[in-house]
Amino acid sequence: MSIDKKIVDDLVANEVSFITTVPCKQLAGVIEEVDRRDGIFHIPSNKEDEGMGLCAGAWMGGKRPAIIMQNTAIGVTINTLATLIQYYRMPLPMLISYRGELREPVACQVEMAVHTKALLAQLNIPTYHFHRQKDVEEFDMILKYTFMCNKPVAILTDANFWGGYGDQ
Amino acid sequence: MIRSEILREIAPILRDQLVVCNIGIPSQELHAIDDQPTNFYMLGTMGLASSIGLGLALAQPKTVIVIDGDGSVLTNLGTLPTIGNNAPGNYILMIIDNGSYGSTGDQPTYTGKKTDLAGMARAAGCDNVVVVQDVDTGPALQKAIAGRRATVLVVKCDSGNAKMPVITMDPVIIRDRFMKAVAS
Ligand SMILES: Cc1ncc(C[n+]2csc(CCOP(=O)(O)OP(=O)(O)O)c2C)c(N)n1
Ligand SMILES: [Mg+2]
């Protein structure tokens, strides 16, 4: 089974039905898969903090949300994570492409990669790093954990996990 | 009229509805005028009231009224295309446009100068944008509720704040009682 399909199957199995996204090349397949599912309402957002606001509202309205985003957006979401998602104690799975890691072809992406885990750790956000394809097996458990504890939880997915960018 | 006078006047209309209220003095004023479990007070996160309200309106069928501010919409302008392309009929975004950052001492925003929020909302794809003067807020809001059509209501008013106490309620309590009111 493709990783994209497995990820979206797990989201559906955990009753996630409201997903917002800001694209990344690495996430293109999973976003396409989200669009294919009738049980998921997909609402693209223009900035990741806006997307987190949508997710907060959807959760208060009775839907389980998730955000799919790139790690370069961690900086713009810090205030929202601290003063909305964490302060009001809301669950939020964050499926994050971890650009700037091994097999990254674009040097600029490394500049936020070096801050990503430090920022998440500073916020006490439970963080998982998917580096090999089999790491996806934990995704279902991570979703259950997120909705058990009502916290934002980060799943960092690097280029090696997604199979690289071909011959680079 | 200033914001608090408008809120006092529309409090009887808001009472029966789900309300997401903007950060700072707007929430303090609404809380002091008529605290309700159906009110979600933002204690931080400037800019996201319209987004939280949109997520809520999309997730359940009850009418959602967002009380937002011009400064907050300007800081999250990406919200307007998302509203324009997705807002369901139970969504009302009421922007109290006092042309200032009220909570921080009424520093002017660009809406008091050349910037037209209603025009921006229309250009973003919102097709039901209504601009009213402060004194006409009540009837305009009632019309929007009855219309069951996504509405952006821009309320032009004076800048100024009423002196109200800070909200000391715990955020998890605000959120929990709000979620119970949503589900009831
Ligand atoms: C990121 C961020 N920047 C600045 C502030 C300070 N701040 C709080 S409320 C506010 C003004 C909001 O203005 P507006 O949305 O027009 O509401 P008004 O009080 O005028 O009704 C500002 C600047 C903040 N809370 N967060
Ligand atoms: Mg203002």
CATH class of chain B, please? Alpha Beta
The major β-sheet of chain B equals: 6 strands, parallel
Run of helices and strands of chain B: HEHEHEHHEEEHEHEH
Query: What ligands does this structure carry?
Result: thiamine diphosphate, magnesium ion
**pLDDT < 50 runs, ≥5 residues of chain B:** none
Name of the CATH superfamily of chain B: Thiamin diphosphate (ThDP)-binding fold, Pyr/PP domains
CATH-level-2 architecture of chain B = 3-Layer(aba) Sandwich
Count the beta strands of chain A. 6
List the helices and strands and how they pair.
The complex is a heterodimer of chains A (168) and B (184).
Chain A: H1 3-13, E1 16-21, H2 28-36, E2 41-44, H3 48-60, E3 64-70, H4 74-86, E4 92-98, H5 107-122, E5 127-130, H6 139-149, E6 152-158, H7 159-162
Parallel strand pairs in A: 1-2, 1-3, 3-4, 4-6, 5-6
Helix pairs in contact in A: 1-2, 3-4
Chain B: H1 3-14, E1 18-21, H2 25-34, E2 39-41, H3 49-59, E3 64-69, H4 70-75, H5 79-86, E4 91-97, E5 100-101, E6 107-108, H6 117-123, E7 129-133, H7 137-147, E8 151-156, H8 171-183
Parallel strand pairs in B: 1-2, 1-3, 3-4, 4-8, 7-8
Antiparallel strand pairs in B: 5-6
Helix pairs in contact in B: 1-2, 1-7
Thiamine diphosphate (TPP) is lined by residues 3, 22-26, 46, 69-72, 96, 98, 100-104 of chain B.
Protein name (chain A): Sulfopyruvate decarboxylase subunit alpha
GO molecular function (chain A): carboxy-lyase activity
Keywords (chain A): Decarboxylase, Lyase, Pyruvate
